[in-house]
Amino acid sequence: MDTSRRKVPRHIAIIMDGNGRWAKQRMQPRFMGHRAGVRAVEGIVKHCVASGVEVLSLFAFSSENWRRPGKEVSLLMELFSHALENQVKRLHKNNIRLNIIGDTSRFSPSLQQQITAATSLTAANSGLVLNIAANYGGRWDITQSVQQIVAKIQTGELEAKQVDESLIADHLVTAALPEPDLFIRTGGEQRISNFLLWQLAYTELYFTDKLWPEFTAQDLDNAIESFASRERRFGRTSEQITGSDDA
C-alpha cells in the first residue's frame, strides 16, 4: 500500500494481546504463543519503519504480569533476554533506537546489564524509536514522575507553584517523545490496562479481534487508515479544525 499520500501517526502504541490464546487454539503451551508474538513484532517494526512512523511503543510486560504463574514469568524473562541478544544488532543496523521503559530494577542483574548494553548501543540512532514497556504501569509512571518532582522541591531546585502538566510530562519515561496518536489493542479486549495512562489522553483508540501473533502489516495499515479517517479536535470544534467557523 502506498503510504506517501495518507496521514501516518507519528507515534503508535500497541498492547500485544492474545499470545496465550493463539497457542491454546493450536494445543500448544502458552510460551509458544509468546515466541510467535516476538516474530510478529519483527514484522510490525519493519512496517512502521517503511511507513514513516517515528515512535512505536509496545507493551511487552506489565507490572501486573508478575502475578502470572512463576514458570510462565521465568520463560518470559528468558524470551526477553534472548530477543535482546538476537535482535539488538539488527535494530542498530537499521538505525532504530531502542528504549526499555519501566521499572527495570526488579529484573535480574544480568538482564539489567543486557538492557543497558542494548540501549547504549542504539542510543545515537536517528530512525524509529522503539519503546519496549517492560515491568511498566501507567500509574507507576505518573508516581515516579511526581516523586522526582517532589525530590527537586525538597532540594530547592523547584518550587511547588512551578508544578504543572508540562512538568509532570517532562518527568515521565516518554519525556521528549510525542504522545501517541494511535493506540492499538489486539485480542478483542477493549481497555487500556494501565498502559501510558497520562500519554493516551487524546490518543485515537483502535481495537481488533486479531490475536497478536496473527497481526500483520495489512492489519496495521487498516488501523492507520482508521486513524487517518478520524477528526482530531483536541477540545476544539469541527468548524475550527476545517477553518469554516466565522464566529
Q: What is the CATH topology descriptor?
A: Undecaprenyl pyrophosphate synthetase
Spatial order of the strands in the main sheet? 3-4-2-1-5-6
Structural class: alpha/beta
CATH architecture: 3-Layer(aba) Sandwich
CATH superfamily: Decaprenyl diphosphate synthase-like
Q: Class, according to the CATH hierarchy?
A: Alpha Beta
Poorly predicted runs? none
Q: How does the overall form come out from the CA principal axes?
A: globular
Number of strands: 6
**Domain unit count:** 1
How confident overall, as mean pLDDT?
93
Strand proportion: 5-15%
Spell out the key features of this protein:
Undecaprenyl pyrophosphate synthetase; 247 residues; six-stranded parallel beta sheet; alpha/beta
Overall description:
With 247 residues, the protein is an alpha/beta fold. It has one domain (11-137, 178-228): Undecaprenyl pyrophosphate synthetase. 43% of the residues lie in helices and 14% in strands. It contains 8 helices and 6 strands, in the order E-H-H-E-H-E-H-E-H-H-E-E-H-H. The protein has a 6-stranded parallel sheet with strand order 3-4-2-1-5-6, sandwiched between helices. Strand 3, helix 4 (109-122) and strand 4 (129-136) form a beta-alpha-beta unit. The longest helix is centred in the N-terminal third of the chain and has 24 residues, at 70-93. The N and C termini lie far apart (40 Å). The mean pLDDT is 93.
